[in-house]
Backbone:
């Protein structure tokens, strides 16, 4: 290696080359999440026109050959020649990083795209992109191939339309998986946008097949209030309060608290600006919290200053109420005050400080105190004016406090067990020799039979096996105390090493691949759902970090002569049959235990050949709704879901 490190060794990447070389820096990843991030960049640009009061409609169309088109009725990208770059405004926007109208507060007072690279990134990582602009009575087009203009901007004729339409196809060479668009992911994101922008009309069409197109339309007039209703539709929001005669009780609904205020003349860095705050929140009888936060309509999945300000406001206000009004002196923690709370926090400001291009966390410190003070004032006033609701909230907080204390005692009881008490756990877990969590894998296996095959077939250097007996506890309906009373879940918690919820400590994790391996039948699906519910509710950080996976065991084995092929889905079976010119036998695997150790290793556990699916938090709030509906106490939503989706079930455990 040459030790000379001079200026001529520095590589300068011009234009779009750095984006192509390091795409994950701009879109977070090159898997399906990154594919959809390209969509969000263009959709967010359209929504910025809505925020600026120049647009009212956004249309998204999924097209054949993996194209997507996003159209708005805003002002249209500038089409005149840029005075310094000597190319059209359209070409500037799509080919020059750090260029755009978001840097001028006379153009956009509030914007989600502040770095000027969103459209540029989408273009750089697309195989083909077509930009159409409708402006000042004319339409204009320009095409790009792998980010490079195919021709200068063309004026193609008169039009009565206004706005911008962007059609693009992700570049397969960039993304690690098949870069297809998922209708449900896009639908959920657009529904979210409608909640955040009162009055906005959004249309979504799936035009990828010749059949009648799937479509959804979103329009919301009550904003975040409707958002809370949507998030809590499967939850029980009723609570009991003392009736007028104080002898009986009556059921009432926990109210939706709503705050929508603008703080003026706030010092943000070296600027003085206004900050708009919109917050809605509601309690339910759930044991978990669900917070969704946004800054300038961009979802801040890691929270930030606005979320911390909200949590502080709710916690401090309820603690003060318990101390001064209810006269309770217990050692209430913030987690006690937030249990069962669903909240949506949205702030809008000119110069938000995001952490990273993907804008997952808001760092503008001035926002914390603004949100805290506005929410505190609103909630404090409400509690004083509505003593019955205040008492109901106090009872809920005290109930959470008591449940936490009971869980702590149960956890401590588990910790204090002597080594002899842990023999059952030790005999269950077939650990691996490696102590490096970066390469160690934990297979959670259904039943002792499959566990035996997995133990014999694994690579014991880095693969650990934990068989679970029967169906584990449904934690959606259980307090934390019951988790520590459940032997199967205690074994799982001990094996992973991190503890759960507030006591979770990621530094103690023993495996960074935790693979759920269950039978491909109804019971196996149920066990997998129960385990996923446990991880989602009690060890959510494992999903956020990308450590939870599903194994993909085969459904069929085809054998003809010396030729053997394993088939992993019903859809692949007919195609696989065509590969056998002579007679063949089909074996359908109804359980993992039917495979011998060599087959299990070869098909499901060998890192060189297996397929495992990573569980992600891309659709966290939708996942939460599904868990509440399928695993919670409320029967009508679950019944409705089953009725609506029964038509999609072709063959169950046949």
Residues:
């Amino acid at each position: 290696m040459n030790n000379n490190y001079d200026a001529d060794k520095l590589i300068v990447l011009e234009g779009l080359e750095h984006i192509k070389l390091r795409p994950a820096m701009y879109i977070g990843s090159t898997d399906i999440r990154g594919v959809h991030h390209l969509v969000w960049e263009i959709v967010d640009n359209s929504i910025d026109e809505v925020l600026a009061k120049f647009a009212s409609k956004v249309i998204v169309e999924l097209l054949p050959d993996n194209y997507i088109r996003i159209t708005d009725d805003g002002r249209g990208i500038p089409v005149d020649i840029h005075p310094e770059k000597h190319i059209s405004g359209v070409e500037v926007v799509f080919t020059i990083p750090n260029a755009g109208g978001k840097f001028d507060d006379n153009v956009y007072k509030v914007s989600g795209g502040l770095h000027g690279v969103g459209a540029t990134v989408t273009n750089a990582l697309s195989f083909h992109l077509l930009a159409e602009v409708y402006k000042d009575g004319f339409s204009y087009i320009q095409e790009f191939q792998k980010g490079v203009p195919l021709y200068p901007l063309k004026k193609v004729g008169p039009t009565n339309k206004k706005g911008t339409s962007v059609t693009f196809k992700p570049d397969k060479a960039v993304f690690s998986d098949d870069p297809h668009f998922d209708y449900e992911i896009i639908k959920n994101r657009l529904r979210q946008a409608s909640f955040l922008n009162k009055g906005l009309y959004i249309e979504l069409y799936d035009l990828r097949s010749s059949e009648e197109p799937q479509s959804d339309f979103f329009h919301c007039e009550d904003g975040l209030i409707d958002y809370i209703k949507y998030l809590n539709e499967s939850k029980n929001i009723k609570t009991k309060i003392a009736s007028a005669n104080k002898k009986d009780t009556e059921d009432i609904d926990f109210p939706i608290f709503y705050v929508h205020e603008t703080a003026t003349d706030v010092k943000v860095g070296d600027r003085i600006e206004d900050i708009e705050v919109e917050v809605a929140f509601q309690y339910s009888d759930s044991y978990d919290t669900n917070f969704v936060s946004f800054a300038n309509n961009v979802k801040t999945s890691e929270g930030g200053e606005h979320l911390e300000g909200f949590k502080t406001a709710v916690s401090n206000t309820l603690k003060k109420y318990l101390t001064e009004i209810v006269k309770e002196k217990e050692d209430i923690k913030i987690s006690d005050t937030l249990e069962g709370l669903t909240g949506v926090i949205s702030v809008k400001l000119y110069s938000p400080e995001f952490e990273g291009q993907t804008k997952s966390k808001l760092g503008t410190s001035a926002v914390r105190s603004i949100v805290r003070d506005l929410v505190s004032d609103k909630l404090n006033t409400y509690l004083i004016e509505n003593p019955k609701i205040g008492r109901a909230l106090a009872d809920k907080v005290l109930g959470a406090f008591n449940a936490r204390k009971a869980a702590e005692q149960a956890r401590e009881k588990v910790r204090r067990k002597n080594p002899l008490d842990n023999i059952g756990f030790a005999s269950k877990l077939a650990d691996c020799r490696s102590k490096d969590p970066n390469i160690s894998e934990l297979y959670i296996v259904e039943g002792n039979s499959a566990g035996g095959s997995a133990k014999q077939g694994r690579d014991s250097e880095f693969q650990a096996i934990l068989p679970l007996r029967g169906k584990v506890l449904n934690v959606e309906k259980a307090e934390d105390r019951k988790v520590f009373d459940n032997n199967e879940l205690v074994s799982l918690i001990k094996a992973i090493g991190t503890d759960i919820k507030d006591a979770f400590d990621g530094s103690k994790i023993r495996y960074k691949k935790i693979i759920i391996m269950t039978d491909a039948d109804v019971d196996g699906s149920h066990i997998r759902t129960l385990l996923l519910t446990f991880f989602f509710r009690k060890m959510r950080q494992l999903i956020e970090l990308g450590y939870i996976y599903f194994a993909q065991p085969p459904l069929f084995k085809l054998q003809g002569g010396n030729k053997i092929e394993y088939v992993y889905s019903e859809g692949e079976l007919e195609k696989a049959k065509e590969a056998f010119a002579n007679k063949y036998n089909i074996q359908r695997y109804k359980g993992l235990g039917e495979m011998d150790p060599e087959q299990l290793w070869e098909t499901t556990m060998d890192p060189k050949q297996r397929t495992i699916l990573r569980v992600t938090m891309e659709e966290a709030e939708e996942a939460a709704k599904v868990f509440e509906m399928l695993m919670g106490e409320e029967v009508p939503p679950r019944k409705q879901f089953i009725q609506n989706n029964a038509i999609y079930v072709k063959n169950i455990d046949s």
Remarks:
- Residues 264 and 274 are 4 Å apart (CA to CA).
- Residues 3-13, 646-654 have pLDDT under 50 and may be disordered.
